[in-house]
Write a structure and sequence with these properties.
Number of helices: 8
Strand order of the largest sheet: 2-6-4-5
Helix content: 40-55%
CATH superfamily of the largest domain: Jelly Rolls
Number of strands: 10
Distance between the termini: 40 Å
Structural class: alpha+beta
Order of helices and strands: HHEEEEEHEEHHHEHHEE
CATH architecture of the largest domain: Sandwich
Shape: elongated
Amino acid sequence: MSIQTADFSPIKHLFEPNLLDEIQRVGIHKKVAKGELMIDIGESIKHIPLILDGVIKIVREDDSGDELLLYFVEFGNTCAMTLNCCLDQSKSEIRALCESDVSLIMIPVNLMDLWLTKYKSWRTFIFENFQNRLNEMLKAIDALTFLKLDDRLRNYLEEKVKHTNDNKLHITHLEIATDLNSSRVVISRLLKQLENEGLLKLGRNTISLLN
DNA sequence: ACATTAAGTGATT
DNA sequence: AATCACTTAATGT
C-alpha cells in the first residue's frame, strides 16, 4: 500500500506543513484488518503508529494469561505506551489489537527524537498524547477499583457503541468476559439483568442497546 | 444427523 | 463474583 493512497485529512490539522511533507516521505501507510494483532507483549518497537482511521484496543496480560482491557486508541492519536517503549528502546508492555479495520502510518522510531527538536507541532502532539493517555489510564484505574462489575460492563458497552456507531453490537459474552477479566457466566447473568431492566436486548452474538 | 459453539441455570464456595 | 457441572439453543458441516 503506497503512501499516496493514504487519507491524511484526520491528522492534517495536527502538524505543520514541513512535518507533513516529511511524514509523507518516510511514513509507511498500513491497513490492518479487524481483529489482527498489531503489537504483542515483549515485542520491541521499531515504528510509531499514527492512526488515521479505526480503533485499536490496548490490553494488558496477567501472569495466568488473562487479558484486561486498558483503553482504546482512536484516529489522530498514538499509543503513549508505545511512545514510552520507543524512548528507552524497551520491549512492549502491552498488546495492541485492532478493534475495527485500521488505517495507520508507521514512523520509524529514530525520527521520533529528531522531530522533537525540529518540529513544534510534533512536540505538542507527543505531549498531548501523553496527557490523554495518562487520563485514560486514570479512568481505567478508577473503573477497576471503584466500580462494580455491572457498572464496568455498562461503561464497556457504551464505549463499544461509540466506536462502532451502531447500537447493535456483534460480540459474544465470552469476549466481553475476557476484556473485563471476568467469567462468561457472570457476564451472561449481568447482561440478563440489564435486559430485564429494559436497557438492552440480547441475541446470539448480538447485543442491542436500547437508548 | 451430528458436532461445535453460544448462552442459560442451579448449586456451591 | 467466581466456578462447576450441567442444559438448551443456534449454527456449521
